[in-house]
Design goal:
Layout (H helix, E strand, L loop, with lengths): L1 H10 L2 H11 L4 H24 L6 H27 L7 H25 L2 H11 L7 H10 L6 H4 L1
């Protein structure tokens, strides 16, 4: 009876609800923590690369990083729930998708590092991943691609 009273007391408070929600994510804490770290690393290296090339900082990038992170968390969580509801133990689809997200963000970090350091090793890795640059100037290609306004249509750019 004492246990039931403690549970009902904790559920009735906002802190209890918060801990209940956080408790639901304990299985995903490692995946979410790595997602958070890699998105923050991409954001910071992107800022440093932009500053090095003289691209002005804007709040748009922070909003994009936050919305990207929330989308990543949402997709991973939905796949985790889908897997649990269907009782699928033989495949961890949320881990496969999280691994793909890590890879995409790692490529972005490598591109940023190529811009920041202009080190031959980073340049070769990025060229290997991207293929041949248009004007064989991979740094400018990266900067132009990352700073192009995605809200404009292709017709507006011409």
């Amino acid at each position: 009876m004492e246990t039931i009273n403690k549970i009902s007391q904790s559920i009735s408070s906002p802190a209890g609800w918060l801990f209940a929600i956080l408790g639901r994510f304990t299985s995903l804490k490692d995946v979410f923590f790595l997602l958070l770290l890699i998105v923050i690393a991409d954001f910071i290296t992107g800022l440093v690369a932009s500053r090095k090339k003289g691209v002005p900082c804007s709040s748009r990038r922070l909003r994009q990083s936050i919305s990207k992170m929330l989308c990543y968390f949402g997709v991973v969580y939905l796949l985790f729930e889908f897997q649990n509801i269907l009782n699928i133990d033989w495949i961890a689809s949320y881990k496969i998708v999280a691994g793909f997200i890590y890879l995409v963000e790692l490529i972005s970090i490598l591109e940023n590092m190529a811009v920041i350091t202009e080190n031959k090793i980073f340049m070769k890795i990025v060229k290997l991943i991207r293929g041949k640059a248009q004007k064989d100037d991979i740094v400018n290609d990266i900067i132009n691609e990352k700073n192009e306004d995605k809200t404009l249509s292709k017709k507006d750019k011409k």
